[in-house]
Amino acid sequence: MRERDDADGASPVAPVSAPNGKREPGSLIPVTARGEATRQRILESAEQVFGEMGYYEASVSEITRRAGVAQGTFYLYFHSKREIFVELIDDLGTRLRSATSAAIADTTDRLIIERQGFAAFFDFLSHHPRIYKIVQEADRVAPEAARAYYQRISEGYQRGLRRAREFGTIREVDPEATAYALMGVAHFVALRWLVWPQELGAEEHSIPPTVFDAVMDFISHGLVGR
Amino acid sequence: MRERDDADGASPVAPVSAPNGKREPGSLIPVTARGEATRQRILESAEQVFGEMGYYEASVSEITRRAGVAQGTFYLYFHSKREIFVELIDDLGTRLRSATSAAIADTTDRLIIERQGFAAFFDFLSHHPRIYKIVQEADRVAPEAARAYYQRISEGYQRGLRRAREFGTIREVDPEATAYALMGVAHFVALRWLVWPQELGAEEHSIPPTVFDAVMDFISHGLVGR
DNA sequence: TATCAATATGACTGATACGTCATGTTATTG
DNA sequence: CAATAACATGACGTATCAGTCATATTGATA
Known about the structure:
Two copies of one chain form a homodimer. In chain A, 69% of the residues lie in helices and 0% in strands. With 226 residues, chain A is mostly helical. The first copy, chain A, has two domains: 33-79, Arc Repressor Mutant, subunit A (Orthogonal Bundle); 83-224, Orthogonal Bundle (Tetracycline Repressor, domain 2), CATH 1.10.357.10. The structure holds a DNA duplex (30 and 30 nucleotides).
């Protein structure tokens, strides 16, 4: 579950305990289950607070308040406010990708894959409305993290498109351009029919079926063509 | 690093000059050409600073410094930092819309309109790279302004699509869904081939022709279909 | 149950920024 | 050339935080 990443995690060196008995500052990795649980609570609180108030208006003290820990505890597990934000982006990306890829498993027809993928994406967003704005904001707060987020999604997309192209399910298309085009479609439709409505009225929203069908129609023609 | 929150809103009414001879605070509209020029300089400086540093890391003092005026002068023309940001969003929207609509004047074929519209959009962005990030950030800083920005673009788009549909140039499509889908395509292609490259290397970039053609191909099939 | 590393606390510091205000300058008008 | 309204100044008042640190608590182990 946790997915503590090996290579691309921060912490350059020396994760072990210190020689003098004092804990090496810069470890940040909890050793006990208690620590792990606290760290997780802080992360979840951060997702909530960043989602509601945005990165800059969110304060570390608000995050720790909601997590039920003291300010100082935060810095036991994260070097900085920005660092936890980046970790959050990575988490959200992983969760989103696994949600969509789970939805298209066992499917081979590319157009059905698109339909199920889009449906899963919208579904995920409507249940986690915060993540949209968090990722959006990442473009300013942590551009590298935002790029990585979109790039990883596009890579999966490109693989799928290439395969479909080989099998002749779809037209000859430029995989990367098409991948970004499709991501843009999903993004803006979500903005218009999920994010905005949620901001105005508090209820949970989903894409109207007629809109969903219209979008899938547009995409299908775009991919297949004559 | 810190950000004070602007207690914005306020400013009930009374734009005219004061009875006691002192200028009524809340007018904000320059009366002389000198004032107009100063206000404009501040606006241009704000576009630059917001674009480079982002809304929250930009400071009013940095804006006034680059405009060559004192801090207090800022509040002669704008109630708050947020207010100038909103005005900027409106400005950028107007400029962008007029740039694209100028590019498609005298054109009737919808597919050619799309091609020219997209080209104008990309061209505008590559010459004003800042605006992309400013508008993006507006989603957090001034959601109403951001919504208005996108809505006005989509309205023009929908009109065009409806007309094209009536003339049979394109398939029967849902105008609003299609408008947002197309906006999404443009947005993400710009992100990938204009904004990101500009962030990494400082030079000016434009969309590679093969990518542009691939995108137009996708769109054309999506609009026309069989 | 004594030990001690891991975990937790919260007061404090240093830095920064928005917006105000009392005062000064410009230039237009009668 | 006064008078005066518009424009301009910049120091200051008031807040807010990110991050640090000395101290306290917890709980596993021997």
